[in-house]
């Protein structure tokens, strides 16, 4: 039972029975595939190599690590982050939409574009959060109950400096055997395309949705526990139209 099935079951609004069936099946599947939640959060060493001291107040990072609902929700709670947009990276503009990407053959990964102030939080620190609490970097083409290349672990560096930091950090973590398995994270190239409005701020707008409760809220809790100095209570939200789709109360 994937995130897509759960989302479509509710969005179709076909009645309480369909919603109940979707929730029940999702709960069983999430218990069977619990990877990607708080139990995977680990304290890891910071990167030995980071970007040089910042002289600007705005930089962008593009990261993919499973469902973008949780990835966005985590980074929206990080001090120094000024904006996080959920979207698609790795494919073309023509197929940068949820229906196409969900098929798994567009080249896109569900991703987030993180705008941050490098004088307050460094790119290397964002990667430390990415590897430790935002997702499980050892899983190949899956996170928790979701499987497919669109859920792969991937970093899309926006500069040569980011490329070097990310590459060195992956090598550092692998050499230290921080995780039980080698990192599956890939460094890739690709343009970022924002996702549909109804995907933005999804965790904040739907905190009682079973998928969010099981898979994503524990990651935000882990961020607060492992990185208390970097955690902010009020998330930095994307401004979207009021007509954007939102799940009904459960």
From TrEMBL:
Please name the GO terms that the record assigns under molecular function. Answer: L-methionine:thioredoxin-disulfide S-oxidoreductase activity; peptide-methionine (S)-S-oxide reductase activity
Q: Which domain of life is it from?
A: Bacteria
Which protein is depicted?
A: Peptide methionine sulfoxide reductase MsrA
Query: Which family, according to UniProt?
Result: Belongs to the MsrA Met sulfoxide reductase family.
Name all Peptide methionine sulphoxide reductase MsrA domain ranges: 60-211
List the active site. Answer: 67
- Keywords assigned: Oxidoreductase
Q: Which InterPro entries match?
A: Met_Sox_Rdtase_MsrA_dom, Met_Sox_Rdtase_MsrA_sf
UniProt gene name = msrA
Give the E.C. number(s): 1.8.4.11
According to its UniProt entry, the function of this protein is described as: Has an important function as a repair enzyme for proteins that have been inactivated by oxidation. Catalyzes the reversible oxidation-reduction of methionine sulfoxide in proteins to methionine.
Pfam families in alphabetical order? PMSR
């Amino acid at each position: 039972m994937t995130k897509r099935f759960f989302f479509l079951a509710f969005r179709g609004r076909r009645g309480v029975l369909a919603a109940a069936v979707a929730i029940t099946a999702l709960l069983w599947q999430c218990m069977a595939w619990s990877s990607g939640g708080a139990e995977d959060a680990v304290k890891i060493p910071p990167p030995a190599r980071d970007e040089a001291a910042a002289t600007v107040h705005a930089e962008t990072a593009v990261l993919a690590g499973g469902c973008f609902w949780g990835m966005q929700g985590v980074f929206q709670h990080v001090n120094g982050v000024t904006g996080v947009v959920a979207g698609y990276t790795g494919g073309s503009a023509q197929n940068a939409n949820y229906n196409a990407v969900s098929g798994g053959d567009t080249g896109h990964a569900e991703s987030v574009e993180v705008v941050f102030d490098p004088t307050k939080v460094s790119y290397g620190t964002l990667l430390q959060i990415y590897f430790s609490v935002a997702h499980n970097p050892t899983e190949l083409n899956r996170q928790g109950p979701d499987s497919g290349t669109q859920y792969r672990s991937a970093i899309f560096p926006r500069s040569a400096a980011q490329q070097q930091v990310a590459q060195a950090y992956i090598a550092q973590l692998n050499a230290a055997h921080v995780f039980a398995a080698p990192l599956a994270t890939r460094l890739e190239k690709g343009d970022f395309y924002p996702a549909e409005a109804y995907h933005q701020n999804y965790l904040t707008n739907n905190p009682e949705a079973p998928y969010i409760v099981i898979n994503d809220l524990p990651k935000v809790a882990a961020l607060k526990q492992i990185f208390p100095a970097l955690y902010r209570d009020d998330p930095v939200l994307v401004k979207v139209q009021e007509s954007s789709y939102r799940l009904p109360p459960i």
